[in-house]
TrEMBL record, chain A:
Its cofactor is Zn(2+). Keywords: Metal-binding, Repeat, Transferase, Ubl conjugation pathway, Zinc, Zinc-finger. Might act as an E3 ubiquitin-protein ligase, or as part of E3 complex, which accepts ubiquitin from specific E2 ubiquitin-conjugating enzymes and then transfers it to substrates. This is RBR-type E3 ubiquitin transferase. It is an enzyme of class 2 (transferase). One of its GO terms (biological process) is protein ubiquitination. Its EC number is 2.3.2.31. Residues 115-329, 119-167 form the RING-type domain. Belongs to the RBR family. Ariadne subfamily. Pfam families: Ariadne, IBR, IBR_2, UBA_ARI1. The keyword Nucleotide-binding does not apply. It catalyses: [E2 ubiquitin-conjugating enzyme]-S-ubiquitinyl-L-cysteine + [acceptor protein]-L-lysine = [E2 ubiquitin-conjugating enzyme]-L-cysteine + [acceptor protein]-N(6)-ubiquitinyl-L-lysine. It comes from Macleaya cordata.
From TrEMBL, chain B:
Residues 2-150 form the UBC core domain. Gene3D superfamilies: Ubiquitin Conjugating Enzyme. PANTHER family: UBIQUITIN-CONJUGATING ENZYME E2. It is an enzyme of class 2 (transferase). This is E2 ubiquitin-conjugating enzyme. Belongs to the ubiquitin-conjugating enzyme family. Keywords: ATP-binding, Nucleotide-binding, Transferase, Ubl conjugation pathway. GO terms for molecular function: ATP binding; ubiquitin conjugating enzyme activity. Pfam families: UQ_con. Its EC number is 2.3.2.23. It comes from the Eukaryota. SUPFAM superfamilies: UBC-like. The active site is at 88 (glycyl thioester intermediate).
Amino acid sequence: MGDFMGSDDEYYSDPDYSDPLENDEEDLQWSTSSVSSSKVITKESLLEAQREDLRRVMDLLKLSEQHARTLLIHHRWDVETVFAVLVEKGKEQLFGEAGVTVVECKSYASPKSSSMVTCDICMDDIPAREVTSMDCGHCFCNTCWTEHFIVKINEGQSRRIRCMAHKCTAICDEEVIRNLVSARDADMAERFERFLLESYIEDNKRVKWCPSVPHCGNAIRVEDDEFCEVECACGLQFCFSCSSEAHSPCSCLMWELWIKKCRDESETVNWITVNTKPCPKCHKPVEKNGGCNLVSCICGQAFCWLCGGATGRDHTWSSISGHSCGRYKEEREKQAERAKRDLYRYMHYHNRYKAHTDSFKLETKLKETIQERISVLESRDSTLKDFSWLTNGLYRLFRSRRVLSYSYPFAFYMFGDDLFKDEMTLEVREIKQNLFEDQQQQLEANVEKLSKFVEEQFDQYPDEKVMEIRMQVINLTVITDKLCKKMYECIENDLLGSLQLATHNIAPYKSKGVERASELPVLRTNCSDSYLQSSSSRSASGGTVELGLSSSGSPNFESGCPSRKRAKREALGAALFDLNLPAEVIDKS
Amino acid sequence: MVDFSRVQKELVECNRDKGISGVSITLHGDDLSHLSGTITGPVGTPYEGGTFQIDIRLPDGYPFEPPKMQFLTKVWHPNISSQNGAICLDILKDQWSPALTLKTALLSLQALLSAPEPDDPQDAVVAQQYLREYQTFVGTARYWTETFAKRTTMGTEEKVKRACTWLPSSSSLTQFYLLGRLEINMETKEKTHDILTLNY
């Protein structure tokens, strides 16, 4: 144990240590030292969130915002794909496939306003000022365009409204759509706008809606790894990949299977069907607990175990008097045995999973109790002033309980027949199982120890004893963290890494808990950020950028950001309290 | 609301050269949203000489939504259901454009009769036959054209009888299938469309 002390984890061993970059809040150890790479996108920051991607495409291809958007929607908001297609197939094909038509000089068919034009859709003669031609050159009357747009918006095709001409694949100018539709139906225009903006969330593998119920209205964007766990601003922690609760070290597939299994308790039902027979009189399931094939129910009815039919009570070891039936005993017994074994196996894993899950349900209460004890100690005149070791220990306890809890369904599938039966021989499986279970048991033992110390009634102890507990808690905090890390490494390298067929991605272990997505700043009118200058100079270099927006203070925050200035600022300003706690707790603190 | 002024113009425009184009549209009483189209079978195909009736219904969003078309005359064709006349054609679905008209749609149907697309079938049985036993397919299609798409004095019963006693030359399974199908079809058909399709 001692060798963990004074190692590279000064962080934990020295409670007075504090990062000079961070402020002095008591829970600083649990804050993210650098800004989290995932971002919360709110309704307000949705436009802002996509601006960086738009700008990159606009700058490179000298495009208007709407053309850039069309390209990005077509390529599911993957800027790299857009660039790759550009290099591979050239500009013309890139534009053609996405339905972007760039006109060199826009010449609206605007002859004398008095002249009449025939619209090919309604077949009426229309004054030339009431027709609109798209970038592709097709020209129809405004009424028909509007009608077309509304039909398409209603069909849910706002993101790809094509020109009305037959076989024309050009995507209509969003500005024209906006203007014409809002003149007819303002609500519809708003819907169009929303659909267009929400494409960034719905057609983008890096962005997902927060799965909270009721929905908080936010979406989360991750930067690189989509197999990760994030925490939304609303407090919900979820697996980004499958949008269900955070479940690592279980893979998404394992978790899905596990949830389903827990829900229908199929094992129990299975066991009952195989191991019992309904009594022919009272219909209760009856289990045979040995003896011959004459079974008697608690209601007093005797029946034949083999065929389930009611019989009299007279019998010998081999036959029931007056009763005979064919028997396929062997097969049935094997089946029963298998079902029973499967059930016991499931129960083993489920019980442990449940036990840890239940104990982290009590976290909130425990946290309050500990807080009370701390205040008692603080009011006492003693040498002990700093209790961050205790809060740290507590959060480490919560964190590792989660890891432990989800490690059971993981083990259930890792060493069961459902997923990897053909991947490992029985011997290999056994070796791996032993390896994993060793780690799991070590972790479990230490978590329990940590739990015991954290829950001691130290407020009633003398200082020396508290100091002793302090040492233990600090030690165990470090150890459990290391053990969690090791367990993840074992899963990654020794268990899943060697598999040939199946790929199971596990969200990586983070000592500090599930990463909390940071808020994207919403467009502000005055932003005293030196960073801004680089943003506006960047936009000035790209000819097609809407200067009005960028110069009014919309910084580019993400990938385009060359320095880490922004990151530091956010780390200081934004939520430092990065706990692995349910939302209610965070709200309270 | 259907754009009736356009529909009226379309009717005039389409029927102006029906002699040349081989397609025409007629009204179904006063209701402009329910029309019926006629196309002649393309020369050099098993449909040659036949006249095919198509039921046309215009949705409220017409011409911004595609018209609904269905063969009333029974046709043996991979992209047209032999049971109910439903048509599998892209321009009647997602490839519809408001710039297309009823006339262009009917012309496309005519083109479909000359160039079936068995890889994207509406009627799997017909498509299979087209791909595997082309000659049988041609025979059946021609027979159906003779029976259902030509003006005769024959009554419905007689036609059904004829269709049922005629057996294509090869696969007995197909024959069996056809027989069963025809009998069922004729019953339902008679109830709904017999005046339109069969009794001229």
